Every structure is written in structure tokens, then in C-alpha cells.
Amino acid sequence: MKTLKLKFAGSRGGTCRVFVTLALAFFVLTCGAQSEVRDVAQEAVDRIEEKIRPTDVRHESGVGYTARLSGGRRGDKDSAGSKCVLLEDGKALSTPRALHADIRDKGRGRYSHWTEGSLYFSASDNSDPRTNGKNYTLVSDARVLRHRSTVHVAGAESSYRIDALDGREVLNHKMTIRNLDERVAVVPRLALEGWPDLSSSEGILRSILKPEMTDEQKTLAIWKFLVDWRYHYYPAEGGAEIHDPVKFINVYGYGFCDDSAQNAAALAKMAGLKSRVWGLSGHVVAETFFEGRWHMIDPDHEVFYRASAGHIAGVEELAANPGIITREPRDPIGSDSRSIAKLYTTTANNQTYEKVFIPSHKLEPKLGPGDEVVFDLRSRDEFHAILFAKEGKPPTFANGRLMKRIAVGGGAQSAHIEWPYVMLGGRLSWRDDTGSVPNKVLMSVDGENYVGLPVVSNGASRSVDLRAWIKKQNKACYQFWLDASGPKAHVKLTLDFQFAPRALAQVQPGVNRFQCFVGTADGEPLPDSWKGLEVVHEWQESLEKKK
User: Which fold has domain 201-353?
Assistant: First the structure.
């Protein structure tokens, strides 16, 4: 271990000046191909600032309001309490950790950062924070050790290890994957040891099911998988977009009850189980059929019910015997069991959906020669939303960007761009200093019908903004065709996309063993001359022990 003292001014937002220690460490773990991990660590004070947008605020009661958060910091509900401060137009509000009843009844700047995802607060003058024109920001400072762990992946199957301290909070910032080869396009897949294969529905089932399992065990394994890997929030679209498990888990990570039920039914059908979906009077659940009866599973409410005979009860059995539901006063997510029972017993509007969507999406991110993709876990600026576009940011999501060089124009074939994460925007850029540049850019969503996009000039620089064109498609965009008139040119393409942080392999407290699998885009073996991938994890661990 080698240490060096220096002064560091690189805290988040550039607002802090602290002394740091730089440490270089080298670890080697051999499993398949040998991977070397180089870790650079810097001690710093980290300031996290989360702006509270009016669209994220809801009226709770009296003069009290709530806001959804995505900063991932522990709240007052934790025994140690929140270390966050709520600013109103840059000034700290008067009373943190206030009782919720006092926030509602008295207000005057009282607030409580209650959980990682929720804030209860009032304005200093008891006005409506959605319309009073004031700016609210939740800030916190923490002493941390920032890490930049760089790995060179040289083979088709590699493993490497990154250690973080147990009992400390870990926050991941970014993960970057670069294709170092100038000739070979590759498809990488990175996972933590013990994780399911999330790259396809078939991979999910191979990971969570075992040949010796009974049909009930298979049903419950699918239910448990969805309970663990998704959360309840307004879906980005209606219909089949969110009913593909790979998109549901990797791209979004959230949806309504019908989305969880449809994904459960789809996975069950692929596993060889007869399945269907029930639409109740305000709720949707899934069923599988085995041992001569139907059995209900509800991933959204994280529950299933066993009859007195021991089997998992079906919807019609629950409608006839609601006491099975009301044996416990609340279900696992806190819903009143009597209200849930009414959904089953009010049968007038209940109906089944026998036709189950068969998913086909695969998480196969193609990185061309020299391509780079950045998964930025602290970037939460844009998200895909059509059906509930006015509902505000999801509690947990993140943005990434793909950077690549592509050839266009000169009579060459249109460039076909595919990406397994939903595209939010993008930009083409080049310099007009050689005379060999495109003079018009054409875009197509189907490879047949093209529209011209405006080229913006700034001195010798030229650019085309793809954001408006992508949003105009009014549905999730995973591919497009790009063409240009004029001489052949190489231009830079930057694509912005959305991903689900939970499904991204990240550093966690303790020992982290990562597995990286790399194939070529054309299915051929990796050549011996392949230069490999560079994987960079940027993360931090708290220097304060959890209490």
C-alpha cells in the first residue's frame, strides 16, 4: 500500500475543501481469465444536494406536504436519525426531526426527512410549496472514502474482486465500460457472484429454478424474484412495454400491480406452468395451475395466501373464503386486509385474462470498436413516461450515456443503432474543418421512412439534437436508423438512456466478486488479439460506522 498526502478540492459540486489521502492498491483474482483491479481511494467530504421539484410534492394534511426522494440517505425513522438539512431558498428551515402531527398542524418550516424516499415538510410561511415559487433542497455532508476501481477484462469469462468495509454505507456513483479494441464489436454482461442472469427471460428462469422443483416451488420462486427486483410506481407506458421481464427489471424496475402480475404469468408460462391474470375490482394478480387447482400469487403486494389445507389459495377460493385473507390485519406492504378481501369478494367486475404476453427483449448491449458506456447512478434528470407523464420522477431510476463513433454519408448503408435500454435523447457532433462532412442528417424509426433533422452550426462545430425526434415517437425507443447526405464522414454519437439501478452490478458492503462475460456481436469467438474491456467502478464508503 502506497500513500501520498495532498490537498483535494473535488467534492461534489465543488463546494468543499478538504484534505485527502490517496491510496493505490492492486488485487488479482484468477477465475477464467486473470483480471487486475487497481483501486485509487480519496478521503473527502461529500455533499449530496437533492432539489425538490413541485411535481414531486403532494399535499398530505393541513399545512403539511410530502415529497418523494431518490438520494438514498437514511432518515429519521432510522434509530440514528437523518443528517440532512432542508433549505428553503438557500436557508435552513427552522425545525428538523419534527413530529408529523406538528408539521401538519403548526408548520412554519417544520420538517422530517422520514425515510430514504420520503420527506414531510412545511413552508416557512405555511404556503403551498408547489406554487409559492420557493426553492427547496435537501442537503447532507458526510466524511467518505471515494474509490475509483479500474479493471482490465481480457477474456470471454473473467472474475475480479472489490472489497468494501462491512458495516459502512456504500454509495455507487458511476460504472463505465470501454471497448478497448479498434476492430471487434462485443456484448458484455457484468454481474455479481450469486446474482441471477438478468439478460433474458430464459436466463432469469435458469437462475431461479431448479430441475427438482415442484410446480409450487417454481411458482413461489417466480413470485419471490419479482418481489425482490421491482417496486410499485406509475409505469412508463401501458401494454406490453412493461410486461417483458427484462425491460421490467433492467430498464425501469417499477410498475403497477398489473405489470407485476403480467410478468409473473409470462415467466410462469415460459417455465411450463399454465398461467393467467385476474383483473379484480381495482387490483390485478396472477395465478398458476397445478395439482388440479389454480393458485394466486401477488408480487405487487408481496403476498400469497394458504388455505387451511395448506395449499396456495386461488382467486375464486379467496372470494368464497375471505377469512383466509383477513387472518392477518395487514398484508406485507401494510394494506388493510379487509379492504384487500373486498377486491376478491366484489366479483361483479372480476375477470381473467388467459392470453399471456410472451417476452422477447434481451439485455445485449453492443459496444462497437472504441465505444464507451457510462451508467451514472447519480444522474436522475430524465425518464421515459407516456401514460403517467405528469406524476413526477420515479423514486429510484438513473440515467446513462453511450458514446460511439459512426460512419455516415457517402452512399454508405444507413447506420443501424440498437440499445437495450430505453433511449431518452442523443446528439450527433462533428467539426466542419476538412470539407468532408455530412450536410444533412436523416433519421428513421423503421429503416424505411426518413425525416431530416436540423443541423446547428457553432463556428467549425456542427451538431444535431436527437431528443425531440426520439420523444416524438411517443413510445419507447430502442433502435433507429441514421443516414446522411454528402461525403462519408465519421461523427460522434452520444445517446442518453434510462436504467434501473437495482439491476446494475454495483459495489456493496463486504466482499464483492464480479463476473464478466464477453461475446462478440457477430457470435464468433473472441480473437486472440482482442484488446479487452476497461471496467471502472466509481463508488464511496462512509467513514462513519452505521449505528
Answer: C8orf32 fold (3.10.620)
The mean predicted confidence, pLDDT, of the chain is 89
Contacts of residue 214, defined as CB under 8 A and 6 or more positions apart, other chains included, come to: none
3-state secondary structure of 3: strand
Between CA 340 and CA 338 the distance in angstroms is 5
Look at residue 437 in the predicted model and tell me its pLDDT.
64
Sequence spans of domains, the chain: 2-47+143-173+511-545, 201-353, 398-499
pLDDT computed for residue 18 by the predictor:
31
How far apart CA 113 and CA 96 sit, in angstroms, is 8
Domain 398-499 superfamily per CATH: Nucleoplasmin core domain (2.60.120.340)
Q: Are 275 and 357 in contact (CB under 8 A)?
A: no
> Band of the pLDDT at 16, cuts 50, 70, 90?
very low
Pairing of strands 231-232, 254-255: parallel
Kindly report the pTM of this predicted structure: 0.84
Q: Which three cell numbers stand for residue 386?
A: 407516456
Please determine whether the domains at 201-353 and 398-499 fall in the same fold group of CATH.
no
The residue among 207, 299, 315 whose CA lies nearest residue 260 is: 299
Closest C-alpha to 363, from 508, 255, 244, 445: 244
pLDDT tens column, 503-526: 999 999 999 999 999 999 999 999
Q: Which helix (H) or strand (E) holds 325?
A: helix 323-326
CA distance 397 to 422: 12
Are 1 and 23 a contacting pair, CB within 8 Å? yes
370-379 residue pLDDT tens: 999 999 999 9
